[in-house]
Write a structure and sequence with these properties.
With 375 residues, the protein is mainly α. The chain is built from 15 helices and no strands. The protein has two domains: 146 residues, no CATH class; 150 residues.
Length: 375
C-alpha cells in the first residue's frame, strides 16, 4: 500500500508567483498598447493617407531624384509643392465660383429678379413624376417667392446639411494636405522606411514571406491608386469630349470637376445629370440630338463601372476579384481611404490563407508516399 504524496507547496507558490508576474506584464503591455493607440488615433487617418501617397508616388520620386543628382529631399519637396498646387488651386477656383453662384441665386430670390423659364410640355409626359414635376416647375415660373415660402422648412434643413458637408470637405482637404507633406518626408527616407516595413512583416510572417508580403502590399496600393486616378482621368476626358460635341458651355471646367469627383470616388452623375437636365430645358436642342447627346453623356459618365474591374488588379499577385471586392468593400465601409486599405488587407489575407492551404502536411506526406510507390 502506497502512501499518498504530499503536495509540493513550494512549487505551487513559485508557479503562482510566476503566473502572477505574467499577468502583470501582459496587463502592462496591453495598457501601453491602448495608451499608444489612444494618443495616435487622431492621426491614424492622416498617417494612412501619407503612407498610401508615399508608396504610390515613390517611383515618380525616384525618377525625379535621379534626374537632379539623387537629391531625395529636393525631389520630395517638388512633388509635394506641385501636388498641393494641383489640389488647392482648382479647389479654390471651384469654391469661389460656387460661392458666387449661390450668392447670386439668393439675391435673385430675395429681390424677385430670378426668372425660371416655363416648363416644356414634354415634362408632363414623363412617367411617374412628370405631372408633379411640371406642376412644381410651373409654380416656380409663375410665382417663385410663393414656392420658396412654402418650402422654407425644407430649404433650411437642406442649407444646414449643405453647410455641414462644406465644413467636412474643408476639414478633409486640410488633413489631405498635411498627409501630402508627411508623405514627402516619408519619400525622402523611403529606403530606410521600406527596410523597416519589411523587417516588421518578416517578424510576423518569416523572412521569405515577409519580403513577398511587402512587395504584394506595395503593388496592391499602387494598382488601386493607378486604377482610381487613371479611371478618373479617362472618365473626365470622355465626359469633356462629349460635352464639347454637345455644345455645352464651360465643358472644360465641368470635365475638371468630373476628374476631382472621380478621384474622391463621387459618381460623375453629380455633373452629368444636371447637364442633361439643362439640355432638355434650354430649348436649344431638338428631340433627336438631345436623345443622342443624353445617351453619349450617360455612357461616358458610367465608363468607370466597366474600367474598375479591368484596371484595379493589374500587376498584383492576387486575383482581380479579390482586389476589386476589397476595394469596393473598403470604400463602402470607410470611404476612399478604406478602398486602399481594404484592397491591400484582402490581398494579404488571401495570400496568407492560400499559403496555409498549400502547406497541408497530409497532402505533402501523401505526395511523398505516392512518389515513393511510383519509384
Amino acid at each position: 500500500m502506497t502512501t499518498p504524496r504530499e503536495p509540493d507547496h513550494e512549487l505551487e507558490e513559485r508557479l503562482a508567483r510566476r503566473l502572477f508576474d505574467v499577468f502583470i506584464r501582459v496587463g502592462l503591455v496591453l495598457a501601453l498598447v491602448w495608451l499608444c493607440f489612444h494618443f495616435f488615433a487622431p492621426f491614424l487617418t492622416m498617417m494612412l493617407w501619407a503612407l498610401i501617397l508615399a508608396v504610390t508616388l515613390y517611383p515618380l520620386h525616384q525618377m525625379l531624384a535621379n534626374r537632379i543628382g539623387g537629391r531625395q529631399g529636393r525631389a520630395a519637396t517638388l512633388i509635394v509643392v506641385l501636388g498641393i498646387a494641383l489640389i488647392v488651386v482648382p479647389t479654390v477656383i471651384l469654391g469661389s465660383s460656387l460661392g458666387d453662384s449661390v450668392h447670386e441665386l439668393i439675391n435673385g430670390v430675395k429681390d424677385n429678379t430670378l426668372r425660371i423659364p416655363a416648363p416644356p410640355a414634354s415634362v408632363a409626359e414623363l412617367p411617374v413624376v412628370g405631372k408633379k414635376a411640371h406642376a412644381a416647375w410651373s409654380l416656380a415660373h409663375n410665382d417663385l417667392p410663393a414656392l420658396v415660402k412654402s418650402m422654407q422648412p425644407k430649404i433650411g434643413e437642406l442649407a444646414g446639411k449643405a453647410l455641414g458637408i462644406v465644413a467636412s470637405l474643408g476639414g478633409g482637404l486640410l488633413k489631405f494636405l498635411f498627409s501630402f507633406i508627411i508623405a514627402g518626408i516619408m519619400m525622402t527616407f523611403g529606403e530606410s522606411g521600406g527596410r523597416a516595413m519589411q523587417a516588421i512583416l518578416e517578424r510576423f510572417a518569416g523572412v521569405a514571406r515577409g519580403a513577398e508580403f511587402t512587395k504584394l502590399a506595395t503593388a496592391t496600393l499602387r494598382a488601386v491608386a493607378a486604377g482610381v486616378i487613371g479611371i478618373a482621368c479617362i472618365q473626365a476626358l470622355l465626359v469633356g469630349i462629349m460635352l464639347i460635341i454637345a455644345g455645352v458651355p464651360f465643358a472644360g471646367v465641368l470635365a475638371l470637376v468630373v476628374l476631382l469627383l472621380g478621384i474622391v470616388q463621387v459618381p460623375a452623375a453629380v455633373v452629368t445629370l444636371p447637364v442633361i437636365g439643362w439640355m432638355w430645358t434650354a430649348g436649344d436642342y431638338a428631340t433627336t440630338p438631345a436623345i443622342v447627346y443624353t445617351v453619349l453623356i450617360v455612357v461616358s459618365g458610367s465608363v468607370d463601372n466597366v474600367l474598375k474591374p479591368l484596371m484595379l488588379g493589374r500587376g498584383v499577385d492576387a486575383p482581380m476579384p479579390v482586389i476589386l471586392i476589397g476595394a469596393l468593400g473598403g470604400m463602402a465601409t470607410d470611404g476612399i481611404l478604406g478602398m486602399f486599405v481594404g484592397a491591400a488587407a484582402l490581398a494579404l489575407g488571401y495570400q496568407i490563407f492560400m499559403r496555409w492551404v498549400d502547406d497541408n502536411p497530409e497532402r505533402v506526406r501523401h505526395a511523398g508516399e505516392s512518389g515513393s510507390l511510383t519509384l
